[in-house]
# Entry
Amino acid sequence: PLTVYSKKSSIILFLAISRQAQLEQLSSVAAGTRYLKNKCNRSDLPADETIYRAAVNVGKARGWGNIDVATLSQNSDRLYQQLLQDSTPEATQCSQFNRQLAPFIASLRSD
# Structure
């Protein structure tokens, strides 16, 4: 189902997705951010627990209130291990994650 929200003059479309898909999205963001911190010399990024809490808060802001930090942490750890095993060159992953995760990383600094 597609839900349309109108806020002032802009219209925002949200596709309703399953809880599992929500968890995967948020876990991917957290895993990518951890990868940046640990493999791409991003010492400016916070502790893992802070990253997990921020990802859960993003979900809550989207109306995805049923995801807890422990579940996200476990799922994110699995995805992070997959990233470490991926054959993509580290420099390529760092470049892509820096670009794709910029909005999330900016939200870490504003909290």
Notes: The two ends are 32 Å apart (CA to CA). Confidence is low (pLDDT under 50) at residues 1-13. Helices lie at 19-39, 48-61, 69-85, 90-100, 102-110. The CA atoms of residues 60 and 66 lie 8 Å apart.
